[in-house]
Amino acid sequence: MAKKKVVALGGDGVGPEVVDATCHVLQNAGFDLEIIKPPCGEAAMKDYSNAFPEETRRLCDTADAILFGATGITSVAILAYLRWFLDNYVNIRPVKYYVGAGTCLKDALGIDFVILRENSEGMYSFAEGDLALLRQKLADFRTIMGKSLADFGDGKFALRIVSERGTRRFAKYACEYATQRRKNGYLGKVTCVTKSNVLRQSDGLFQSIMEEEVKKYPELSYEHYYVDDMARRLLRFPKEFDVVATENMFGDILADEASELVGGLGVVGSACVEGKVAYFESVHGSAPDIAGRNIANPTATILSAKLMLDYLEMHQEADALERAVAAIYKDGKNLTYDQGGKATTMECAKAVLRQMK
Ligand code: IPM
Ligand code: MN
Fold first, then answer.
1. CA of 119, closest atom in ligand 1
2. Using an 8 Å Cβ cutoff, are 22 and 297 in contact?
3. How far is the CA of 266 from the centre of ligand 1 (A)?
């Protein structure tokens, strides 16, 4: 079988450090991967005056998978390309506790659920503008409260688009995903999260499409919570969840909240899939305050690489990598400062690598 080709893009801030550390692990663990690191992000901006050179984009298009570090301001164009242009409309964010990680709870043992975030529309449809434009185009429009758009005066709007096609494809994926997890011994439960009590039409549609699709899977169980209630339930009952399926912005916010249950943003990875080329990135941002100091936690990117290996059907390698991460957390001697340790980014990664040898 041909070697899988992975394009690794650091991006901004701590991105290049955590990606380098992760690639160090992947390259030295003996995994059958070809890893290419073309210029991108802040570094490429300096050298080529372009954060996303044409050649880098071309390499992404022909890769088997892309590993991505983090976005600040400079790399937004890369993120936009990977997520929206390549149309990776599902964002998988596993929230799993590894013993030894710095949870905010007294007892996090057994937390192991996944947030599936619709990744292409909702509040992040990039459809914003002046209220004046909307009022001109929709002179007869009235809100449920009977207000016209002119009644708001001047300002801006953002369209929160919930399309039938976008929601249907996401709902189908969520059901398949939960079915797969059920086969692996999980609950087989889909928790749909919306604000359909207020956003009756848009989130009403999201909820009803989820329900229509889940009905086709009698072996799955299903529940629905409003997002405000869900924010609380994540803290109080985190062990009750299996697959949480939600709109783009809700997923963005709930994932950051949920990360604290299992050690914070430094330890939660993610996969963006179902588009032309899948890509894998941590849930955290570019953390400019600690960039360049070799102290960022590489775990989130290493666990994103674990998801990438699974995606590439390299399941044994994925399992070995995850076991190594679990082992260094349990042992606790090579963790970064966010976990109360003193290890540098590279020392932490090298500890993961030693576990695999
Ligand atoms: C994330 C980030 C991004 C998002 C930003 C950088 C656009 O916060 O991956 O969660 O909101 O999706
Ligand atoms: Mn986010």
1. 12
2. no
3. 15
Kindly state the greatest CA–CA separation across the chain: 69
Residues 6+ apart with CB under 8 A from 345: 14, 17, 18, 21, 294, 295, 296, 297, 298, 336
State the burial class of residue 308 (Cβ atoms within 10 Å of its Cβ: 0-12, 13-18, 19+): buried
CA–CA dist 65, 81 (Å, integer): 14
Going by alpha carbons, the residue nearest to atom 9 of ligand 1 is: 283
Q: Candidates 18, 71, 75: which one to mutate for ligand 1, based on the most atoms within 8 Å of Cβ? A: 71
Token readout for 30 is 């003996």
Low-confidence ranges of the chain (pLDDT < 70): none
What is the model's pLDDT at position 357? 85
Determine the pLDDT at residue 2.
83
Ligand 2 center to 253 CA (angstroms): 6
CA atoms of 95 and 114, how far apart (whole Å): 6
2 CA from centroid of ligand 2 (Å):
35
Angle between helices 164-183 and 202-215 (to 10 degrees): 40
The structure's pTM equals 0.97
